[in-house]
Model the fold of this input.
Amino acid sequence: MSRSNQKWQLGFTPAELRKLRSFKTPAGIQKFLDELPYNLKFDARSPRSVLHDHTASCLDGGIFAAAALRAIGFPPLIFDLEADHDTDHVVAIYKVRGHWGAVAKSNFTGCRYREPIYRNLRELALSYFNIYFNLRFERTLRRYSRPVNLARFDDRNWMSTEKPVWFIAEYLCEIPHIRLLPTGAEKRLTRVDSRTIKGEMVGHRRKK
Done:
C-alpha cells in the first residue's frame, strides 16, 4: 500500500505530511524537537498542534515524535518512564536492526535522544537513570512500561485532533510498569553531584 493511501494520514494536510517526512530520520525528528521552546503549560496537545504551535513538552513532544516516526516508516511507539517524587517521562521509541533507540523532548539535557544501540527496553530505560532527577537532586527513575503502539488510538484521531489527548497519558498511568532497580537499591542511592546538575540544567526553562 502506498503512503498516500494509508488511513492514518487522515487529518493531516499534504503540506503537514511533507513536513513530517522531511525529518527523514529519528535524529532529524530530534533536531526539530530540540529547536522548539519547552512548553511549560499543563496540557496534552496532538502532533498537529505541536507542529503548528512550535512548542512541546515531554508528553506531547513524545507523542509528536511517535507520529513523525510513523511518517518516515516506523511504528508509532512510545514507552513511559515512571519516577518516584518526580514526573514521568514519555519517550518515542524505534528499532533499527534489532536495537532500540529513542526520541524525546525534555527540559533537561540528557533525557532526550538515544541512538539505536540498546538490546532491550530495560537497557534503554537504564540509560536515563543517572541523569533523571528531581529539583531536590534525587535520582528518581524507578519503572518503565512495555511499548505502546499509538495506532490503538487512531479511532480517536490522536495525531491531528484539536482536542487534548489526555487519554494517552491516562492509558500510560493504567498499564503495568516494570521495576528497574534491584530490591533495596533506592536506600543506597546518592544525590546527583553539582557538575551533573549544571550540565543537565543547560537551557532549562522555568515559569516566571
